[in-house]
Design goal:
This protein has helices spanning about 1-25, 25-35, 35-55, 70-85, 100-115, 125-135, 135-150, 160-175, 200, 210-225, 240-255, 280-290, 295-310, 330-335, 335-340, 350-360, 370-375, 400-405, and strands at about 205-210, 230-235, 260-265, 315, 345-350, 380-385, 420-425. The two termini are about 35 Å apart. It has 2 domains: about 1-115, Up-down Bundle (Transcription Elongation Factor S-II, Chain A), CATH 1.20.930; about 125-425, Rossmann fold, CATH 3.40.50.10880. It is an alpha/beta fold and about 425 residues long. Helix 2 (about 25-35) runs antiparallel to helix 3 (about 35-55) and helix 3 runs antiparallel to helix 5. It has a 7-stranded mixed β-sheet with strand order 1-7-6-5-2-3-4.
Length: about 425
């Protein structure tokens, strides 16, 4: 299966890159921390080499031994996996759900550093994320320029024009999800050219397109809430780099068009899946834009810093996003997060990993309704903006999946197709 090759080939590649990254920073660790830094680097590398060996030889998944706040939840989840395998041996790397062992690997990478001060705050993926951002400069510039030009006359747009602009920026945010470093095992995956020029030609590749539903939800929320409370949109982020910039532009558009009054962003609390956004990446991106030698890029950065200061943009991270659990367990495992999401008018889930966790990462029939696959996860109306990079997909029309499969066997994992898939949460 695709999962098997991911575990067998892609994950060891990622671990090898992490080890190489630590090797390369040896001098830097020495300059900053002296011998202690070098010792910590050696210990982290030995821990990661052992992890790579466990993975490649299909060893049993072992309990976490660190004292980090989420360790007990991870170990309970391992017990749950043991119960599921009921007597067929210990859960191992190749005999366990793909989603679980993949998340587990990233959690072990985090432990390798967290347990080895003084390099415990070093993000082994930071360079790759920064590189993706810089290599996507042309696309970032084009997007910021387009958006700042749009802002000049946004007050004069009628409803139809506003809708068109929303659809454009939703698509840019959707296709921005192609820039994923865990998918390419850290190889270059930047967005080279302006994403706006190719949107028309990409529409046939959106297999489920619920943009109209998002529009009517937003417009109705606005009408309902004119008198009383705020309209709130939450974006559950995926990758840093170009994708994050496309999400920030979308968020700014929602405020500037008065479709929303506040936007909440949810990122990862630890480095995750190579290119996922952490608080550091979020703030770094805004600072880099502010400092850019381009008036529209720096204008975006300045405005976005302002949105954070005014509190109309709020960044959150929560331990739950880096646990192995499906989102259907959120109400039980992280009731505080679930309660917070319930305050939202619309949840936008970015990317493939979020889609896998929304749908429990199962081999569903293509036609199973999205609502059903969510397995009672309905804190608020939600939408997945996702390019397909794993073989889980629901909510297709009868025959739609089979028809594509007949001509493109890799359609579910190539990143070529996308969905804008909505659930009203009723």
């Amino acid at each position: 299966s695709f999962a098997y090759f991911t575990i067998k080939d892609r994950l060891p590649q990622i671990l090898t890159r992490v080890i190489d990254t630590l090797h390369r920073h040896k001098n830097e660790f020495f300059e900053e921390h002296g011998e202690k830094g070098v010792e910590a680097e050696k210990r982290a590398i030995s821990f990661l080499s052992k992890l790579r060996n466990e993975l490649q030889t299909d060893k049993a998944v072992i309990p976490l031994e660190d004292e980090l706040p989420d360790a007990a939840l991870w170990n309970q989840y391992l017990d749950y996996q043991r119960d599921l395998s009921s007597g067929s041996g210990e859960p191992s790397w190749f005999q366990s759900p793909w989603l679980y062992v993949e998340c587990y690997m990233y959690r072990r990478i985090h432990a390798a550093l967290a347990q080895n001060p003084p390099i415990d705050n070093f993000d082994v993926f930071k360079e790759g994320k920064a590189q993706n951002f810089f290599e996507s400069q042309e696309a970032v510039t084009a997007l910021c320029t387009y958006f700042q030009e749009l802002l000049k006359n946004i007050k004069d747009l009628d409803e139809k024009q506003l809708q068109e602009e929303l659809f454009k920026l939703l698509q840019v945010s959707l296709w921005g999800n192609k820039c994923d470093l865990s998918f390419s095992a850290g190889e270059d995956s930047s967005q080279k050219s302006s994403p706006l020029q190719s949107l028309e030609g990409m529409i046939p590749y959106i297999l489920v397109n619920d943009m109209e539903k998002i529009w009517s939800l937003m417009v109705n929320a606005k009408k309902r809430n004119k008198e009383e409370s705020n309209v709130r949109v939450d974006i559950i982020l995926d990758n840093a780099g170009f994708e994050l910039v496309s999400d920030l532009v979308l968020a700014d558009f929602l405020l500037s068009s008065k479709l929303a009054d506040e936007v909440h962003f949810h990122g990862k609390s630890i480095p995750w899946y190579v290119s996922d956004t952490t608080k550091h990446d979020f703030n770094w991106t805004i600072k880099k834009l502010q400092a850019a030698n381009h008036r529209w890029m720096s204008r975006c950065g300045i405005n976005w810093e302002g949105n954070l200061k005014k509190g109309v943009w709020v960044y959150h991270d929560h331990m739950f996003w880096t646990l192995p659990h499906d989102f259907s367990s959120m109400a039980e495992v992280a009731p505080d997060l679930y309660a917070d999401l319930q305050k939202s008018n619309l949840l936008l889930f970015k990317g493939d990993l979020n889609y896998r966790k929304l749908t429990g990462d199962r081999k569903w029939e293509y036609t199973v309704p999205f609502h059903q696959a969510l397995n009672k996860f309905h804190p608020a109306p939600l939408c997945s903006l996702r390019t397909l990079k794993s073989d889980t997909q629901v909510g297709l029309k009868p025959g739609q999946g089979e028809q594509i499969q007949a001509s493109e066997s890799e359609w579910m994992v190539s990143g070529k197709y996308g969905v804008v898939q909505f659930d009203a949460a009723l």
